[in-house]
Amino acid sequence: MPVKILSVDDENDLELLLTQYFRRKIRKGEYEFHFAHNGLEALTMLVREKDFDIILSDINMPEMDGLTLLTKVNELRNPALKCIMVSAYGDMGNIRQAMNNGAFDFATKPIDLDDLSLTIEKAIEQIHYIKNREREHSQLEIIKGDLAVASEIQQAILPRVFPPFPENVGQIDIAALMNAAKDVGGDFYDFFRIDSDRIGFVMADVSGKGIPASIFMAVSRTLIRATGIRGVSAAECISYSNNLLAKESVNCMFVTAFYGIYNLATGELTYTNAGHNPPVLLKQSGEAEMLPMSADVVMGALEGYVFSQDTMQIGKGDTLLLYTDGVTEAMDTDYQEYGEDRMIAALKANSQGSCQQIIDGIRADVKAYAGEAEQSDDITMMAIRRL
């Protein structure tokens, strides 16, 4: 695209002078000159054609002088439009006023065309810089909008209706939350009905942050849910999902996951822990214990890996807390981690409340501990209580 230059001067010989001097650039399509004979005529052209890049304006003109035109140009609020003011050498007062009012540069009559050419090139550099910044800003705004939509979609695919199983209100209480560190996160939780007696639930953490992690999160959640809902064992579900993830894994991404199948009638929990943080079981007596550390690898790392499973009993009134490392590794302003001990203490302190109150209480405690420190990782929790 040629640089569009509007020359505003009541002296007709300037038009011939400029077109003759810049004829090569005009023929090459680098410059495109337009001419007006006073500020009013120039302003009309600026309103009609909004793509001018440079205004080369005399100060002393009839009908509307250059200083008034400069004021009107400033009202257009186009930072990429540069004004070069021209006046007699002795008219330095007006030139100084023009520069104070936002003119890019000035030239004095009689015009030194070599010097003017350098001034125009300097203005073009500034114009290109500003236009590139505007394009980048527009692209960032588009990305920001897309991230906001992605965040809404991500939150929408996570269960958000509590209690989730109205027909089993007297048997189980469940609550969960996910606070992403960025616009979108890599953590996720899920729960779903397998049959009349069993429900499946998942707590998982994808490696990495941002958009790649959120996409991998959506894929992982879909695989585990679609496999688990068929009623296969916990180990089979994770093994099958792992094989599919390992085949499609990009940039060595992986996911840690805890998948459990809970029997509403008996309180039995069968689970597979694929390298995830061990949940905490808070018994009705007030005693808290962490489940054993997992001996299995993370999902998406080794195709063909056969995962193991364990079984435990959840007593009436017991609460199981699942979480991601964004909770225990939350840092304060001195870079000290929140830790498992504080999390368990917060769990006990809120144990008389519902699962939702437990989750909210721990989240508030983490937030109070971190203070002004920036959240560096997704914070995700789920509490399950046998009633």
User: How many structural domains?
Assistant: 2
Given this structure, which CATH class of the largest domain is correct?
Alpha Beta
List low-pLDDT spans. Answer: none
Helix/sheet category: alpha/beta
CATH fold category name of the largest domain:
Phosphatase 2c, domain 1
**Kindly, what is the distance between the CA atoms of the first and last residues, rounded to a whole number of angstroms?**
72 Å
Looking at the structure, what is the overall shape? elongated
Tally of helical runs: 11
Main-sheet strand order equals: 2-1-3-4-5
- Provide the gyration radius in Å: 34 Å
Task: Give a description of the structure.
By secondary structure, the chain is α/β, with parallel strands linked by helices. The protein folds into 2 domains: 3-136, Rossmann fold, CATH 3.40.50; 158-386, PPM-type phosphatase domain (Phosphatase 2c, domain 1, 4-Layer Sandwich). The chain contains 11 helices and 15 strands. The strands form 3 sheets. Strands 2-1-3-4-5 form a 5-stranded parallel beta sheet, sandwiched between helices. A 5-stranded antiparallel beta sheet has the order 6-15-14-11-12. α7 packs antiparallel against α8 (234-248). The radius of gyration is 34 Å and the shape is elongated. 35% of the residues are buried.
